[in-house]
Amino acid sequence: MKRILPVFVMLLSTIVFAQTPCENGMAGPYPCNGLDLLSRLSLNVLGSDRGNDSWGWTDPQDGKEYAIMGLGNGAAFVDITDPVNPIYLGKLPTHTDPSTWRDIKVYNNHAFIVSEASGHGMQVFDLTRLRSVSNAPETFTEDAHYSGFGNCHNIVINEETGYAYAVGTSTFSGGPHFVNIQDPLNPVAAGGFNEDNYCHDAQVVIYNGPDTDYTGREIFFGSNEDRISIVDVTDKSNPEGISVGFYGSVDYTHQGWLTEDQRYYIMGDELDESTFGFNTRTIIFDLLDLDNPVVHFEYEADVAAIDHNGYVKGNDFYLSSYRAGLRIIDISDIDNRNMVETKFFDTYPSSNSARFDGAWSVYPYFASGSIVISDIDRGLFIVRDSTLGINDVSTSSFAVYPNPASDMVNITSKGEPIVQVEIFNMLGQKVMDQNFDEKLSENVDVSNLQSGMYVMKINSTTTNRLLIN
């Protein structure tokens, strides 16, 4: 969100909404298409007058899923393992003052939290403490604090390298401030980059895209107010700007995310709808040559709402679109300049106009298929694709053992022959695809998979969480 906003009118409720299927275009009071409402926790339940960012954590020990929601006065932690009956475990209060802006990312079982509040710095919270909450909701204390900056708009983490990138701070002219978080409870300043505009949001990856000049480099893709900025941050002591990318009808370059092949950057301008009268507009950059990013095309939705945070999982783009709620857009034909909205869940039913209310962010990376939406006015929503239903259907059709596993996994069917097993990582990327000869029991070699949580899909329909030790 841009840093200057009108005062919000908060709509509070003490109601906790439970499972409501999407039927005839509605899930209770919420317009929808293809997404069921599993539950909602109001801001009143979470003890705040405003909501903002969200992220998620899956416990590698037992596969439990937790939503983390930013609030005006802190960060809330919610056990959503049973998404129909979420448990509000407690809150980590803000380090200094309340603020409209709070952002969270996760690395190595720790949450890293920043805020625009003066002097806030970066809070570090050990998420494994959530395993032993006995008197929810609790008021938590931070486990560590980094004071190398004060106010901060956003935080980005590259989990492959263990570096955090704080953006929009008073340091490095608002450019990325590097922090080594490989030891989460002892964050260490690691430099920064100040040779481009103030950075509002970013994504950082170990590059494996089409431009082989940068294969294996750590590349920073920043949304920098009126441009995208691409920086090589492999050498923290000597980051090097690669290029900038511009587009037409610019007002505020807000946030973007790479497609999984790292060919395209899907980016939103936060103020173009209200300034120029577009419907929700998304700009797609072609990054075939990182030295020369060019606009591939622009996608315009059927509603007028302002777009905010968007994330890619597989062939879907999950966009929090303020008053239009969550929109899921099929990007499988992005090469041919074609994107199609397939599902939505509107958390702000009264209007889809271009105003700053409604869905702030979305987290779509849980193995269960649960999707978190954090809403400025109405709190935390948990939704799921209507075709998945509420329960993990794998428990009624297939047995997977052992789970957790390290070498081999046996899959046994109660009746349906096993013909295909696919395994996806937590970003929705397929890491294994095996076909079988229609037997009722098969062994799958998982010894090449790194430790962590995965999604196993059997016969293209049944899903199960798989933990690799």
Automatic annotation (TrEMBL):
InterPro entries: Choice_anch_B (IPR027589), Secre_tail (IPR026444)
Secretion signal, residue range per the UniProt entry: 1-18
Positions of the Secretion system C-terminal sorting domain: 400-463
One term under GO cellular component: extracellular region
NCBIfam families (alphabetical): choice_anch_B (TIGR04312), Por_Secre_tail (TIGR04183)
PANTHER family reported for this sequence: REGULATORY P DOMAIN-CONTAINING PROTEIN
Name of this chain's protein: Choice-of-anchor B family protein
Species annotation: Aequorivita lipolytica
Taxonomy of the source species: Bacteria, Pseudomonadati, Bacteroidota, Flavobacteriia, Flavobacteriales
